[in-house]
Write a structure and sequence with these properties.
CHMP7_WHD, 18 helices, three-stranded antiparallel sheet, 5% strand, Snf7_fam, protein transport, Charged multivesicular body protein 7, mainly alpha, nucleus, Arc Repressor Mutant, subunit A, single chain
Length: 453
């Protein structure tokens, strides 16, 4: 992270990614306040303190995440956040607060929390601090030196998860044991430097997902089988499989080298024939045949080694299947602990008896309720027949009112007495002057009077 080459590439001042907050360039008053130093205590002005801390703490972590680094130094942060020739005066206080909250951790403290004995180059680099750092801690001074390396805890966990997924998706995952050098090559793009790579391995070791062992001067790494499984210690079987894998790689490289040599001898023989040098061409062909015999012998050995590895991988798969079967049988036994054939038959009989009882109840309810009255259906039928016969014999008593049938919709006439008719007739006769009323024959006089009407 802090090699001279990387420092030369990073521009002085400003964020290389261009992802600084908007007020960085727009609000001079705000930035002057943020670049000023913190008060000695938060109790002096908690509002100003929290405002500055709320600005710088997330910015430091997000800057590290964008850069893809997990190791921080105060000096590098001051250079990264330069603005118009000035540096933030409160970054040391921000780092102290992040250390107090556990979001940052001193690199030396992190190394001490994990078994890092396999890191031979760590002495003098990780574990030994400069004398002034040690004295400052002994005297109770919690200031962060500008050169002290800090580790972003959450970013380191994310990087460790990335490396683990990278291994799981690579051909190296065919066996849990892999050479440290091969793993380092695989993670070259994820880990920008060797120290970050070792910190990632320590984090995985802390999470019980890898273990590191030195074998014959070479470091080997063993991974856990599953993402949620814990790694087991390296045993003799793991070492033997690792040696077979190394032998396979060595034989493959040797066969490839001899194949190139045989091809070279063939070309030399062809050129000698074209030049008319028959003896030289024969020697080249003999060398080619010897090389091919060696290749055949190496192929036989390589096939043997690969066959052994295939059987080992198959046995490991069989062991996994066996363990799965065993776990399944145990779970099945536990789930059927209180289940027997007799209990199942008894349960079925009880269910059948309950179903029969329910059917009887349903039939009883379907019969209805008679409220204590018992009727004879035959007697009811006879009585109904007698009523029907009587009805057919009796004539229908219908009113004879033919006139009303024709004038059902007309207005009914009121009943008028004879005296009223005679009085009305007498009035009509007097009004016309030619009729003389007669009390003896009123009906005769009514007829001519009604004709004009």
């Amino acid at each position: 992270m802090w090699s001279p080459e990387r420092e030369a590439e990073a521009p002085a001042g400003g964020d290389p990614a261009g992802l600084l907050p908007p007020e960085w360039e727009e609000d001079e008053e705000r930035m002057s306040f943020l670049f000023s130093a913190f008060k000695r205590s938060r109790e002096v002005n908690s509002t100003d303190w929290d405002s500055k801390m709320g600005f710088w703490a997330p910015l430091v972590l997000s800057h590290s995440r964008r850069q893809g680094v997990v190791r921080l130094r105060l000096r590098d942060l001051q250079e990264a956040f330069q603005r118009k020739g000035s540096v933030p005066l409160g970054l040391a206080t921000v780092l102290q607060d992040l250390l107090r909250r556990g979001e940052l951790q001193r690199e030396s403290d992190f190394m001490a929390s994990v078994d890092s004995s396999w890191i031979s180059w760590g002495v003098g680099v990780f574990l030994l601090k400069p004398l002034k750092w040690t004295l400052s801690n002994m005297l109770g001074d919690n200031k962060v030196p500008a050169e002290e390396v800090l580790v972003a805890v959450e970013l380191l966990k994310e990087k460790a998860e990335e490396v683990y997924r990278l291994y799981q998706n690579s051909p190296l995952s065919s066996h849990p044991v892999v050479a440290l050098s091969e793993l380092s090559t695989l993670c070259a793009n994820s880990c920008p430097d060797e120290r970050t790579f070792y910190l990632v391995l320590l984090q995985l070791q802390k999470e019980k997902r890898v273990t590191v062992l030195e074998q014959n001067g070479e470091k080997i790494v063993k991974f856990a089988r599953g993402p949620h499984a814990k790694v087991s210690p390296v045993n003799d079987v793991d070492v033997g499989v690792y040696q077979l894998m190394q032998s396979e790689q060595l034989l493959s490289r040797k066969v490839e080298s001899l194949s190139q040599e045989a091809e070279r001898c063939k070309e030399e023989a062809r050129r000698a024939c074209r030049a008319g040098k028959k003896q030289l061409a024969l020697r080249s062909l003999k060398a080619k045949q010897r090389t091919e015999k060696r290749i055949e012998a190496l192929h036989a050995k390589l096939d043997t080694v690969q066959g052994i590895l295939d059987r080992i991988y198959a046995s490991q798969t069989d062991q996994m299947v066996f363990n799965a079967y065993q776990a399944g049988v145990g779970a099945l036994k536990l789930s059927m602990k209180d289940v027997t054939v007799e209990k199942a038959e008894s349960l079925v009989d009880q269910i059948q008896e309950l179903c029969d009882t329910q059917d009887e109840v349903s039939q009883t309810l379907a019969g209805g309720v008679t409220n204590g009255l018992d009727f004879d259906s035959e007697e009811l039928e006879k009585e109904l027949d007698i009523l029907l016969q009587d009805t057919t014999k009796e004539p229908l008593d219908l009113p004879d009112n033919r006139r009303s049938r024709h004038f059902t919709n007309s207005v009914p006439n009121p009943r008028i007495s004879d005296a009223e008719l005679e009085a009305e007739l007498e009035k009509l006769s007097l009004s016309e002057g030619g009729l003389v009323p007669s009390s003896k024959s009123p009906k005769r006089q009514l007829e001519p009077t009604l004709k004009p009407l």
